[in-house]
Design goal:
This protein has about 110 residues and is an all-alpha fold. The chain contains four helices and no strands. The chain has two domains: about 10-55, no CATH class; about 75-109, no CATH class. It has helices at about 10-25, 35-45, 75-85, 90-109. It starts with 9 loop residues before the first helix and ends with a helix.
């Protein structure tokens, strides 16, 4: 069995299971019928235990973005991490959303 060179975060697993649930009303791997049950299942299991239930897919990705890093004070970074974890997103995603919102506010003024 070959395992991927990457791993899925808990929120990504929930998202993947949600797609399947929308079609079947039951998640494909955990057989859960609610997000809570899916979360409980993946808290106790690892995708490598169910690798034989997955299938290969073809897809392409075009990455045309550039990343710029900005320094944050440690205390601010810790707060961002906590909020991002509660919302189930990466800190980078949360910061990008906040900056976009703020820029939209400033443009509306």
């Amino acid at each position: 069995m070959v395992c991927p060179s990457f791993y899925y975060t808990p929120s990504e697993i929930l998202w993947l299971e949600e797609i399947v649930m929308n079609k079947q009303r039951q998640s494909a791997i955990s057989k859960a019928r609610s997000y809570g049950q899916i979360g409980e299942f993946w808290d106790q299991h690892d995708l490598t235990e169910h690798w034989d239930k997955t299938r290969a897919v073809d897809f392409s990705i075009e990455i045309n973005s550039e990343v710029t890093y900005y320094a944050l004070e440690i205390e601010l970074a810790d707060q961002v991490k906590k909020i991002a974890r509660r919302r189930g997103v990466a800190p980078e995603t949360l910061l990008n959303l906040w900056v976009q919102e703020k820029l939209q506010e400033l443009q509306a003024d």
